[in-house]
Amino acid sequence: MANTPTASRMPSDIPAQPTPEMEDVDAFRERARAWLAARMKPLPPGEWEIPNRDTDEGVQHARDLMAKLFDAGFSGICFPKEYGGQGLSVAHMRAWSEEAQRYEMPTKFNIPTLTILLPTLLDYGTEAQKQEHIPKTLRGEEMWVQFLSEPTGGSDLAGALTKATRDGDVYVLSGSKIWSSGAYRADYALCLCRTNWDVQKHRGLSVLLVKIHQPGIQVEQIRQINGSMEFCQEFFDDVPIPADQLVGEEDDGWTVVSRLLQHERSAVGNGSAFGVIMQLGARRTRGETTDPLVDITKQLGLGADPTTRQLVAEGRVLSLVQPALVDRVGTGIRAGKLPGPSSALMKLANATTGIARAELAVKIAGSAAAAWVEPGPASQQAGVFLSRQTAALAGGSNEIQRNIISERVLGMPREFAPDKDAAFKDVKRNTIPTRKP
Amino acid sequence: MELQLSEDQEFFRDTTRKFLDAEAPLTKVRALEASDDGFERDWWRRGAELGWTSMLVPEDLGGGSLSGAGLLDLVLVAEEMGRLVAPGPLVPVSVVASAIAAGGNAEQQKAVLPGLLAGATFAAWALDEGRGPWSGAGVTLTAEQRGSDFILNGTKSTVEAGNVADHFLVTVRTGAGLTNLLVPAGAPGLTVVPMKSLDLVRRFSRVDFSDVTVPSSASVGEIGGAGGEVDRLLQTAVVLQCHETNGAVDHVFAMTTEYAGDRYSFGRPLSSYQALKHRFADLKLWLEGSHGIATHAARAVQQRAANAAELSSAAKSYVGENSTDIIQDCIQLHGGIGVTWEHDLHLFLRRATVNRVTYGTPADHRERIATLLSLEEG
Q1: Are A244 and A158 in a shared domain?
Q2: ipTM field
Q3: Per-residue pLDDT tens digits for B113-162
Q4: What's B123-218's CATH class?
Q5: Residue B288 is nearest to which of A294, A325, A412, comparing CB atoms?
């Protein structure tokens, strides 16, 4: 991967602390608290998300909540005012999140819309694109996805084969993208495509802003191990995309995507301040319920078993360490004490914590993870166990994160790459797609 | 350590670092192995002048911190000491000073604090009894009340700095419940038996009590009501210990990263092998996680927050196990030189191992967390 741009200040580099022209954080908190109490519905005890968050109904509810937040001036806390945001600092976002986390919040918009796509658009979009899309998104009218991975290559994003060929005032888009979560019900995408085959692979890419539902684009849902239908594959059949939908410069799309990936690592590791609310720490604390490991233990009546007690506590420790790491690394990056690519640590922490906790769940559950009469915490976590790899694959696999950490955080030598200096048309590449339609 | 420090804290940390670099290099640590005390008293006194002993004691009692949150300042010292596996009784002196400042009567404060703060006298906390968890629940040593006196009989183990202590804070069981008693080292019937330690300069003792008699006014805080304070002191010790360990692991990790870049095999630096790079990435992940949880624990204990018990036990469980894993993998990455006496790696492994198993093992602390999670309730 090319170097992530961090040297110069980007529009999405928002201040950690309030600047003088901003509303005082405490005053803001009071205002938010009063509004939330008066206008928003508290979550049921023990719940941290709106019911049916991932269903079509839940997504519509999230869109409505976005509009409500927008009208009250609480949408896009850290987005600039000129695009409909509130123009406030991370400190305001923390205060808001502390107040808002016990209410119904449209967190479905967090990843990828608000924390990945919109900050990237903010950094590299044209003025017209920002004016057109950011306010509408903050009102809940648009959901976004990223079209990055392709059926012929996963982690090697810069080896994209989807092509955009300039023809007058349009680019003609053809090829296929895959692993885009929720694309079937999203509205817009940032799509990585190849505009130049005669140069080194990173230098012939461009990013296009694509309206998803239009003639020539077919979206197919993919069923996952756990039954989820969120993953999608898209097929582009010579789709004309207006040339003014280019994001960043032509053939410089890798710069845009590198920034997008940095936003993604931060978002997936829960370190982003651009969402509806941000995660503030281990949200499940004593008396408030429900660590699934605790639930399984109670379901099976194993609370006095010394081995089980060790396993539950081990899982609890991991779920306390993960947000502590995110807090530390996020603070370190914002304070300039850690390099930007350290966000890979947050992502790796998130994935490895999930994997370890899923393992602990199956250890505690024993045969209750294999068969059940009525579903319960054990059977639920058995499903989580089957798909526990998802977070270690999505948005750059753990292996890619470990490359980033060793090379760009620890400064170790880069991997040998035969495609580094060759024109892309001469690079050996996959011809067999990972998945056939 | 927090990644965002105030200017005062940065200055304090840098002053401590410079002092330790000059006055307690690893060669010095090795040289102190054969000494009785494990550190030089004048050196400790000069450390006290830098503020090492005053952070957990309020200003009106002669102490004072930089930030008003003394534990968050003191962890900076602990981390710097870990970086050089420095000698010195930071944890026991800090814990006992904190206990006396928080719960001691005016006479105890007057008798004990000035010496500790000046670095002229020493104190040790006698909690462990050599088996069972380090906690109030593990205490069996009883102090029998006779008139206005307490008579102590029994044994305490793994008492850090017991060899130099002028004062012992002894956690005992009385008829009324858990009690912290302040016992002078010279009390008749009190015998200090030096223990050998895995660490070259950290000294532990067994302390035997045979009809040791103290007046009931020796109680620090309420007689029978020390349970909560014992928890707080243990949290304080664990937070300091985790920061010290993290400082040690930081140093080892930096040393090993550098070595992997300099060391060539088969014509390439070690750090160019992906199998090793990915291991380094994991070590870095565990190290940053260790820092993160230690910081969260320090903040919670400083604020006496409701989740202080859980976070400090989580820190101990995570840091305790990961620290020795990381250091031993760093030894593996060094190759044969890593398992020699002449290489410094073992000094760090020794400290991390001792820290892992004192003030409660990781498993002890997970059991504490399990209790906090109320697993047996419907």
Answers
A1: yes
A2: 0.96
A3: 999 999 999 999 999 999 888 999 899 999 999 999 999 999 999 999 99
A4: mainly beta
A5: A325
